[in-house]
Each structure stands twice: as C-alpha cells, then as structure tokens.
Amino acid sequence: MKKLALTGLLVGSLLTACNQQKTTSDGGSDTAATGTAEVKDLSTLFANFWEENLKLFPLDATTQGDNRYNDRLPNDQTKAFRDTLQTTYQNYLSQLQKFDREKLSDNDKISYDIFKYDLENKLAGLKQNTWMIPFQQFWGLPITLGQFGSGSGIQPFKTVKDYDDWLGRAKGFAAWGDSAIGNFRKGMATGVVLPRPLVEKMIPQMQDLVVTDPTKSLFYGPVTKFPAGFSDADKQRLTAAYKDVILQDLVPTYRKLGTFLKNEYLPKARTTTGISAIPGGPEIYRYYVKSWTTTDKTPEEIYQTGLAEVKRIRSEMERVKNETGFKGDLPAFFNYLKTDKKFTPYQTPEEVLGAFRAIQAKIDPNLKKMFGRTPKTPFEIRQTEAFRAASASAEYNQGSPDGSRPGVFYVPILNAKEFNTTSGMESLFLHEAIPGHHYQTSLQQENESLPKFRRFAWYGAMGEGWALYTESLGKELGLYKDPYQYMGALGDEIHRAIRLVVDVGMHTKNMTREQAIKYMMDNEAISEQGATAEIERYMAIPGQALSYKIGALKIRELRQKYEKQLGGKFNLSNFHDELLKDGVMPLAVLERKMDAWAATQK
Q1: Domain presence at residue 592
Q2: 156 part of a folded domain
C-alpha cells in the first residue's frame, strides 16, 4: 500500500484514515485564517486553499517537499482544530459554488468536480465521532513521528536550519500526546474505543521508543549523520539539544502514552470486532465505504462482489496447482507453499532486496511498450526500519517532486531465512513499486499543470486500484513465468477479494476477528501471523481495504470497454498515459474523463 502521509486530504477516518499522518502544537491556535475575500478565478481559489491547507497540515507540506513549515506540529486533537477545518472547508465550498461549472474548460471541470467532492467528503468526515480514537497500531502520529525524525525519512536533515526545525516540531509532541489521551478518555466514557487486540499491539510500539540513554533513541539518528560542513560549535549545540528533546519531550510522551494505553485504556477496550459495535458505528462504516471507494456501492453489493471474485480466483488457483503436478487439495497446496524449504532460499536481508532489484531489471524492457510517460523521480528499494517492521506491510513512500528525495519501496524483513518467495514477490513489486505506486504518484506530482490540490491528492480507489490493476500486467511485462510466482500473484489478487468479504463481514455482519482470520487462511496461502496482522489492520481502518479491488475492477472494466469500442485504434500505452496524466480522482470523475479521451481516439 502507499504510505499515506497526505493528511489533510480525507478528514473523517480517525480524524480520518489519512489524517493520522499529521499533527499541531497547542489548542489549534496556529491555524490558517479562513479568508473570505472574493476570488475571480478557480486557480486563485485552489491556490488559496492549498496555502491554508499546508499551514493546517505541515507534515503534508514536508512530505511534498515544501519546507516552510518543517518546525511545526499542530495539535489536531483539539476541538478548536476541528472547528477550524469545518469553517475552512465550508468557506471554500461556498466560494466554489459561485462558479458556473458549464462555462469551465475540460480540465477545470475535472478540478471543480474533484474539489467539490473532496470538500463535501471532508465535511461529512468531521461529523463522525472518530476523533475519540486518535491513533491505532497501523497509522498515527506516534508512528509517523519516528519515520520523520529518524534522519533517514521524509524530514530533511541537510542544513543547521533543518536540524533546528526538527527540534521545533518535536517539542509539539507532548501537547499532542496530552490531547490524544484526553480524546481517548472521552471515547472510553462513550463507548467509542478500539478492539482489545489492537491496543495490545499499540503498547509495545510506544514502549519501544522509550530509552534512558538518548544516544540509543531512534531520534538520535540525525546526530550520527551531521553533514560535513557543520561547525564544531553547531555540532555541540545540536547534540545537546537533541539529547534534551529526546529525554524531555519525546521519551516522556511515548512513556505516558504507553502507560495510559496499558493501565487505563486496555481494560476499557472492547471485545467486539467491527465498528458497528460502537455508538454511531453503522453510519461511520457507510461513510468509510463511500469515502474509500469513491462510489455509491452499498456494503452488501461489495460483499457479494467479494464472494464472486473469491470463487473465480480459486478456480484459477486450482488450475495452476494442477499444472505444477501437486497431488492434494488447495489448502494442502497452500501449506506446501508456506512450508517447503525450497521457497525460503535467502540468508540475508540484502539477498531479499537483491531479488526485488532483479524483478525491476526483468520488466524494464517491456515497460517502454506500455508507458509513453515515465517518472523523473528516482526510485529505491529499502528494508523497513526495525522499530516498525513487526506491524508493517510492504509499502511505498513517495519521493519529493523535485527529485531530491527518491520514492522508496519498503520491504519488512523480520527474518530473511523465513522470507518466502511464493509470497508474490513479482506482483508485490508491480503494485508497490513499478509501475504501480511509483509511476502513479510520481507522474502526478511531477505534473506542474495540475493545481496543487490535485498534484498531491490521494484517492485510494484510484491509487490502490491502479496499483492492483498493474499486478494483472505481470504476464505482459514478462513475469509470472514460474507457476509458483503466478500462484503468488493469484494469492495477492484473491487477498484483495477476501478483503471485500471480511471487511464488510466484520463491520456489518458480526463476523469475528477469529472467523475473519480463518476465512483468509482457508482461501489463500498466508500464515496465521500474516492473516492476523491483515485482519487487525481492517479492524483499525474500516473500509480502506475495499478501495483496492473496487478501483482495479473499474480500471479493468474501462480498458475492456475501450478495447471493444476502439478495436484496432486502441493503444494500451496511450490508455495508461491518459489514465495517469491527471492524477488520482474519484472513480466517477475518472470514467467521465476517460470516456472523453476515448471519443477523441476514434
């Protein structure tokens, strides 16, 4: 999955599912003014909104390579902050509605539709009571802060000012932590609490960042990597300041959060699985489904699609199993893939990373036939940092638009000797790296003709839908020649279909965590540990996992529609370029845009 650091994009999911990657310093006082001056053109309206949004969500600004607010960490846990968002979004929606959409250019119509959708979605999200769950084991500022402050992540550490900026940002964490605990307590009083198994994962995450020796802290990383040009005086001052902020601000906050979660919150955590069990839960889930899929599909429609897709993919798995000559049923074949020693050939993490680099080399010649546009942004493959590897999935972290920070494909490797080649390494690379998230995100960010709210937008239905669709290109790209790798790709595909069943099942049909884990293990080659981590992710961020399959099905449907319509005039490279050219957008907006493109191809 793409790492969501674009926090102001989708308010609603814990404050929003995306909104977990950011924060502020005290009661929301450092928020942007919601200027009401009349604007005469859309580009000014969009630019004004973008500037306000960066001030509200400064971690987003850093992520996008805008370093003006690198010293800020707003406290998004306050009512004042949420009220500011409400006022800001409503103000911009009112301004947008003064424009006559029919008089706009084609590209401005797309911008209008996306902007309107986005603001309405954010306002709907603010009506949900999920602010009482400030973070969970999968997303949240306590995790994101470690990635920003380690010295090898998104926050730059190149100049003395960069180092001082981080000190300013880190000092905001204590106020954030106090407000988050206050919101958790409000949730405890009203029954809006996380399931117990998730809280049990969160406690060690907090404890792992508690140290007595500041030089052993993850946050000491930048001090060990001072750039060559720093003076001795700066090095001494910054070293002392970093030790101080670690011991006075960061460690006490992580300790306080861990102690609170263990002693107060865990006893109040719920034994139920789905979000329908909390007050307002069914409405929250319907909001998430609409928000994440960008469609009006009902949970029941999605559930039935999931059942049908699981059935279809299982039959293809049976065919591949028989092709390998395996004697036994599908569950036995899954067990064989998980346990046979020939599928765990690696000794070191570097060997695992090398295998992924070999996949990149293999597809490179064929990519040129399928894409006319390719990103300028550099790309790297890295091992996931140890502090978060145990609860992390493989993921993509976007690069900066100017290319100074590469896009990074992170691979969690807890034990290289247990890393299984049949886990779908080829399909995973297509999805997380090239041509999945790296192509889509980089091309979008590099397109300076888009207003910034579109250059840096994120819609999981199209973004994750695209990445899953690219997995289906494996054979066309020269992969999946090994039946076991193809089986891994089918495993990845059925995994996304299973999500439709278990996500809706847990959150609307009282399917338990244990039943969901069993359903997943019955239908794909996944370990109990892997299935548990996945199911607990869907418990933490309801609806997010639906976006992949719903989006991929729509993109495949569009490709087939235009292949049929255009016949010999259909060009796959042109289709892909057009699909990615204008960035992510809600699926209905995408279909309108692509229909207009297809009409010009005739």
Answers
A1: no
A2: yes
